[in-house]
Amino acid sequence: MRLSRGFIPTLKETPNEAQIVSHRLMLRAGLVRQTSAGIYAWLPLGLRVLRNIERIVREEQDRSGAQEILMPTIQPAELWRESGRYEDYGKEMLRIRDRHERDMLYGPTNEEMVTDLFRQAIKSYRELPQILYHIQWKFRDEVRPRFGVMRGREFLMKDAYSFDLDHDGAVTSYRKMMLAYMRTFQRLGLKAIPMEADTGPIGGDLSHEFIILAPTGESQVYFDAAFEEIDYLSAGAGGFSHEKPEDLARFFEVMTTHYAATDEKHDAARWDQVSADRKREGRGIEVGHIFYFGTKYTKSMNTAVAGPDGKPVHPEMGSYGIGVSRLVGAVIEASHDDAGIIWPDSIAPFRAAILNLKIGDAACDTMCEQLYAAFDGNALYDDRSDRPGAKFADADLMGHPWQIVVGPRGAAAGKVELKRRATGERLEIAPEETLKRVG
Ligand code: ATP
Ligand code: MG
């Protein structure tokens, strides 16, 4: 993308409606714009990040054996009357009536709909287990939408649903998803801690929230220092397979041996047993949440398969959410400095920015055009005729992992300056070498 032609409306001033750094930076770098309270339009730079996160989430769901589907955003109220949640869900649910006076709703989650799809298709225990997921917009009419995309009303979620014949199977599916989540967050450059959590309106008795630490987080969290020390991600998530229940059991043990709980599940007696020097408290952002809830929906929605003895069995379910759009904000909370965003390589909108410090200088222009072509869509070319200072500031603000700076003196000598955004390290190299270094 050429910046001179790009739809990237950056802001010089800090917008005063934004209370936290990720929201400020998302507005300033031109990633999103609010269209109504808690509802956002995604602009090219922001959308590229959202799509990259989505891709990683999808790859790890697929790797775990979950199958992607796409359920609609609009659902019939009937299904929710069957489970009893139409009344229970309260004002957070956006209720709609169509022209035939049928009650519809904009889905805040999809347990009912996926159970309905399942019961129409799956008739025998031989077809179990099944894990289905989709990445779809949700609507929850939050009382206080705030912090930009972190607590929106319309937001993008990956939600998966597992169906197993029995409790043991359901626990294996639950652990499989936990592993997929740890891998996902690791690839996003985040250190997420699985914490015991409340099950809320979804119901059930086994639940973990995946929390990343940030002073602006909405939950109070308590955890053992072990989570700071061990590289439990590579020790844990790297070494286990999704296939064998024994592997998954060991992985689950690594993740849950040490104390980690959110406010609602905090247990003073167990916390007392953690030695004082290992106690950590702080604020956290919930980026994912997994639940096991057994037969809650399969019973209420009359869903059964033929078991091994021919008798009907209600499958055991779990559901598993990741806040895809919230993650854009959460990553920025975890990775920024005073100058702007610092994107992890895996999700950056562009791998590099090419900064032409003197538009109109033949050597600069030629070198930049060649670099731009070589990066084949993976670089943002700052071809505006602004001062160098403005270009440096915008590149820092937008947070590309690398900056390739082309000035007249360097260009004449066949050199560019390569800057790593995260460390500020600079290196003078030949332009041909940049692609290799940037990767
Ligand atoms: P919260 O406690 O933050 O309100 P929740 O427990 O209601 O979230 P879940 O039903 O567990 O949310 O949804 C799965 C994931 O979707 C959450 O872990 C979170 O990352 C994301 N999410 C939930 N609500 C919102 C929202 N209003 N805006 C953006 N993302 C959200
Ligand atoms: Mg939750």
How large is the radius of gyration? Answer: 24 Å
Q: Could you tell me how far the N terminus lies from the C terminus, measured between alpha carbons in angstroms?
A: 18 Å
Helix count from the secondary structure assignment: 16
**Helix/sheet category:** alpha+beta
- What is the 3D shape? globular
Q: Which distinct ligands sit in these coordinates? A: adenosine-5'-triphosphate, magnesium ion
State the helicity in percent bands: 25-40%
Q: How confident overall, as mean pLDDT?
A: 94
Largest sheet: 9 strands, mixed
How many strands in all?
23
What are the low-pLDDT stretches, counting only 5+ consecutive residues below 50? none
Strand content: 25-35%
Provide a descriptive summary of the structure in words.
- The protein is α+β, with helices and mostly antiparallel strands and 439 residues long.
- Helix content is 34%, strand content 27%.
- The strands form six sheets. Strands 3, 7, 8, 9, 10, 11, 12, 13 and 16 form a nine-stranded mixed sheet that branches.
- Helix 1 packs across helix 12 and helix 2 crosses helix 12.
- The radius of gyration is 24 Å and the shape is globular.
